[in-house]
Amino acid sequence: MGVSFLGIQETCMSKVDLFWLKILWGNFSFDFATSSACGLSGGILSIWDPLIFIKKKVFSTEHAIIVEGDWVFFKFLCYMISVYAPQEPSKKKLYMKSNKGAYFFLGDFNAVRWDYERLGTSFSSVTT
Q1: Residue 84's CB: how many other CB atoms inside 10 A?
Q2: Helix (H, G, I), strand (E, B) or coil at 47
Q3: Residues 10-63 pLDDT 10s
Q4: Are 3 and 51 in contact (CB under 8 A)?
Q5: Closest listed residue to residue 101, CA positions, set 62, 63, 57, 49
Q6: Please, what CATH class does the domain formed by 5-117 belong to?
């Protein structure tokens, strides 16, 4: 069994190239959602096997792609969330309170747990 759902951050893609996606995924049996890059930075790609995960809706912002769908094998509604940016916890909680289902987060949360992980800046151990 291979990869069923993939989230990629910093794609630097301003438009979708289906041939590149086919090469990345390995075949033409895929569905996807993107959030375009701004200039030469950013960009998010979610790509999945439509026989494993059946998309219902896609919500896309500058910092996240949320794909609502059914995970076929487990037979449950879930939200696949690909993130690339600092996120406000209050906004995440508000979304999750109003949508029932399982949540799977993928991405770069820019989280720093220890002072040695952040070089050249001041470190705060305060968590939200």
Answers
A1: 25
A2: strand
A3: 787 778 889 999 999 999 999 999 887 776 667 889 999 999 999 999 998 777
A4: no
A5: 57
A6: alpha beta
What pLDDT does 128 receive? 47
Please give the structure tokens belonging to residue 76. Answer: 């449950």
Interval 71-85: pLDDT, tens: 998 889 999 988 876
* Residue 108, token pair as written in the block: 């770069």
Nearest to 66 by CA among 80, 52, 53, 77: 80
DSSP classification of residue 128: -
CA distance 57 to 37: 21
What pTM was computed for the model?
A: 0.71
Handedness of CA 70, 55, 100, 4 (dihedral sign): positive
Mean predicted confidence (pLDDT) in 89-102: 68
- Give the Cα separation of 56 and 80 in Å (integer): 11
Q: Break the chain into its structural domains and give their ranges.
A: 5-117
DSSP, collapsed to helix, strand or coil, labels residue 80 as strand
The pairing of beta strand 31-35 with beta strand 44-48 = antiparallel
104, two tokens: 């799977």
